[in-house]
Specification:
The complex is a heterodimer of chains A (about 250) and B (about 400). By secondary structure, chain A is an alpha/beta fold. Chain A has nine helices and eleven strands. Chain A has one domain (about 10-245): P-loop containing nucleotide triphosphate hydrolases (Rossmann fold, 3-Layer(aba) Sandwich), CATH 3.40.50. Helices cover about 55% and strands about 20% of the residues of chain B. In chain B, the strands form three sheets. In chain B, strands 4-5-9-6-8-7 form a six-stranded mixed barrel. A four-stranded antiparallel beta sheet of chain B has the order 3-11-1-12. Chain B has a two-stranded antiparallel ribbon with strand order 2-10. In chain B, a hairpin with a 7-residue loop joins strand 4 and strand 5 (about 110-115). The radius of gyration of chain B is 35 Å and the shape is elongated. Chain B starts with a helix and ends with a helix. Classes of the chains: A alpha/beta (about 250), B alpha+beta (about 400). The complex binds adenosine-5'-triphosphate and magnesium ion. Magnesium ion (MG) binds near residues 52 and 182 of chain A. Adenosine-5'-triphosphate binds near residues 46 and 53 of chain A.
Chain lengths: ~250, ~400
């Protein structure tokens, strides 16, 4: 099997398709081949509507591919790879959820913090779900993110940038193998965005975490040394069908 | 299971959204509070009527209308029935009259003698039983007229025409108790059956050796023209009445009045439960609908929980836990409201409406029933919202806002 042939690939996707159709407009995401290795930093850069979020949803087991020849997920903590396509076919949503909660951190564009939990509890959310002990790592992470003094505050009292840093902290706190971030800095100014992004990447680097980021921002991607996934988007002349092909 | 974590998060959310929570709680107590007041009035008023019915032994009394010939054995059999608490034979009414005189009052009064025995419901409140030929319990009115009290001795006298001669005998009677006014309103003497029989015997020209009264010697089984009978409870009266009627004995009872109150209670209960049902259904629908709508409001937060790994089974509990809080707090507030209103009602109307008994009252079991009913209703109405919450996918909230 391919998984054994290349054990360091955390994602292995072959001939995956996802079709979306609403009100006569159809969108297709095609991934002929995609390999992401442990520790890689991947950037998905593309115009709005090209399917970045869709691909991230597939990688986070949130969106079900229409079809695929192979979708193997093999984080280094697991001895054997997991066939995600199999679980989707069986609708084993709770198993997919368990995989996600153990191995994946997710940074939402708008933070996605729970308004009724303070910063510390928000950052601890995934850790608590996984029954991880409080070992001071959240406090350390907060220090590194520069939000230590906000630990006991509710999210509503934080600035957008601070909230975004809390969201990054939450995605990293339970030591996942992969952190997926969908435009994590879209709602802050470019200067803050660059600072937050480089903080995020350096924290991930220090922990050997695989990072997959979708973003509009071209300039600091190169600066931070991310690998860009190549993709190609074509629209039909009447604009009713869009197809994006991702390879990497 | 993440139930404990769901509990913690749902609790935090409930506190954080305290304005919404207060609205839920107020909405519940606005329905439950008046319902409790209504029920409290029902319990207080009907309960008071029942208490009077139950407490006053007159309502359990069964009296033969015309005189018959009842044997001791037959009365004894009646006494052994479970639904009969007290039965004692009675002599002829006219023969039972006695003239009483005390040293404290000049007037002589005529009083009825009433055969009594252990467990006489009319003497229940004072817990004394006249035994022997020289101990009696006086009715209140007789005691007042004679100006006597417990411990005094009075003189009783009866007369007869025997062999064309007028004869009068006297007997000393020690007052061992005075029956309350409610038990017997006229002038009366509660006495041992043997004393009542002795008076009748003397009147009939028979000898009473125990008192040294001379006359004819009687032989044969004694029969009684009447009896005093009390049913175990007001609910047994109707059945006993039917039984005696079937035996050819016409009796007088309070069964119609009892049936009236019982029927009234039943009707009021039916009306109350109809109102309560409508209120409860209304509350369930409104709570269910607001919890359901609240899921939209929380869609994003719930999807975050799904994203970090809460399973569908854990999420169901989120609205259920919050509904539970609403039910508990709402019940507490409603109980507070009820107690305030009940206090007002009892204070304002209490004196006019009843003799010191509360007009509006609920007992512990009613509070427990209200709480259980409310909590169960709230949980049931939260189930739909819970299922809806559990259906939320991790992706649902990601694209919003
Ligand atoms: N729930 C949906 N149902 C139908 N079509 C959808 C749905 N969500 C997204 N799409 C379509 O899928 C395509 C890709 O959307 P996607 O959100 O992946 O774009 P994106 O690259 O993330 O864009 P942006 O940079 O604006 O976030 C778009 O054409 C969009 O209209
Ligand atoms: Mg997007």
């Amino acid at each position: 099997m391919t998984a054994e042939a290349n054990p360091i690939s955390i994602y292995q996707i072959r001939n995956l398709l996802l079709d979306r159709e609403s009100q006569g407009v159809s969108f297709r995401l095609a991934v002929p081949s995609l390999q992401i290795r442990q520790g890689e930093k991947i950037a998905l850069i593309g115009e709005s509507g090209c399917g970045k979020s869709t691909l991230l949803d597939i990688l986070a087991f949130i969106a079900q591919p229409t079809e695929s020849d192979g979708f193997l997920f093999h984080p280094e903590e697991l001895d054997v790879g997991v066939h995600i396509d199999y679980h989707w076919r069986k609708r084993n949503l709770n198993q997919l959820g368990d995989l996600r909660k153990k191995h994946i951190g997710y940074v939402m564009q708008t933070g996605g913090l729970l308004p009724y939990l303070n910063v510390r509890d928000n950052m601890n959310l995934s850790r608590h779900v996984l029954h991880q002990e409080d070992d001071g790592s959240v406090e350390q992470l907060a220090m590194q993110l520069g939000i230590a003094r906000h630990l006991n505050k509710l999210p509503e009292t934080l600035s957008t940038g601070e909230r975004q840093r809390v969201a990054i902290g939450r995605a990293l706190a339970h030591n996942p193998s992969i952190v997926i971030a969908d435009e994590p800095t879209a709602s802050v100014d470019p200067f803050a965005a660059e600072k937050i992004m480089s903080l995020f990447i350096s924290l991930a680097e220090a922990r050997n975490i695989t990072v997959i980021v979708a973003s509009h921002a071209w300039q600091h991607v190169n600066k931070l040394g991310l690998r860009r996934l190549s993709h190609h988007t074509q629209r039909s002349s009447d604009g009713r069908t869009t197809e994006t092909i991702v390879n990497g | 299971m993440q139930l404990f974590k769901t509990l913690r998060l749902a609790t935090r959310d409930y506190q954080h959204e305290w304005k919404t929570s207060i609205c839920f709680v107020l909405g519940l107590s606005a329905v439950l509070g008046p319902m409790m007041v209504l029920y409290g009035l029902k319990v207080g008023i009907i309960g008071g009527m029942f208490n009077q019915l139950i407490e006053n032994p007159i309502n359990r009394e069964i009296r033969p209308v015309s005189s018959g010939r009842y044997e001791r054995a037959w009365l004894g059999a009646l006494h052994r029935r479970d639904d009969v608490t007290f039965v004692v034979p009675h002599t002829r009414n006219i023969a039972a009259m006695i003239e009483l005189q005390s040293q404290r009052a000049s007037r002589i009064i005529k009083a009825e003698t009433i055969p009594s025995d252990h467990g006489d419901p009319l003497l229940d409140p004072i817990r004394v039983t006249p035994t022997g030929l020289h101990a009696v319990v006086l009715s209140r009115s007789a005691a007042n007229k004679l100006k006597v009290d417990v411990g005094d001795t009075i003189s009783g006298s009866i007369k007869r025409r025997y062999r064309d001669q007028s004869e009068r005998v006297h007997i000393d009677l020690k007052i061992i108790g005075i029956a309350p006014l409610e038990s017997f309103a006229r002038d009366g003497v509660f006495a041992d059956l043997r004393l009542v029989e002795a008076l009748e015997d003397f009147r009939d020209g028979h000898a009473v050796p125990a008192l040294g009264w001379t006359g004819d010697v009687v032989t044969g089984e004694r029969t009684y023209p009447g009896f005093r009978l009390y049913a175990r409870s007001i609910y047994d009266v109707e059945n006993l009445e039917r039984l005696l009627n079937e035996a050819g004995i016409d009796v007088r009872t309070r069964s119609t009045q009892i049936a009236l109150v019982v029927k009234m209670e039943r009707n009021l209960n039916a009306i109350y439960w109809l109102i309560a049902l409508i209120g409860l259904v209304g509350f369930a629908l409104s709570l269910g609908a607001s919890l359901w709508a609240n899921i939209d409001h929380k869609r994003k937060e719930l999807s975050v929980l799904r994203l970090v790994g809460f399973r569908t089974g854990d999420i169901i509990w989120f609205p259920m836990i919050q509904a539970f809080y609403t039910a508990v707090l709402g019940t507490l507030l409603a109980v507070g409201l009820f107690q305030g209103v009940a206090w007002l009602i009892n204070d304002l109307l209490g004196q006019q409406l009843s003799n010191g008994e509360p007009v509006c009252i609920l007992y512990q079991e009613h509070y427990i029933a209200a709480a259980v009913l409310t909590i169960v209703t709230a949980l049931i109405s939260a189930i739909l919202a819970g299922i809806r919450a559990a259906r939320i996918e991790p992706s649902d909230g990601l694209r919003e806002l």
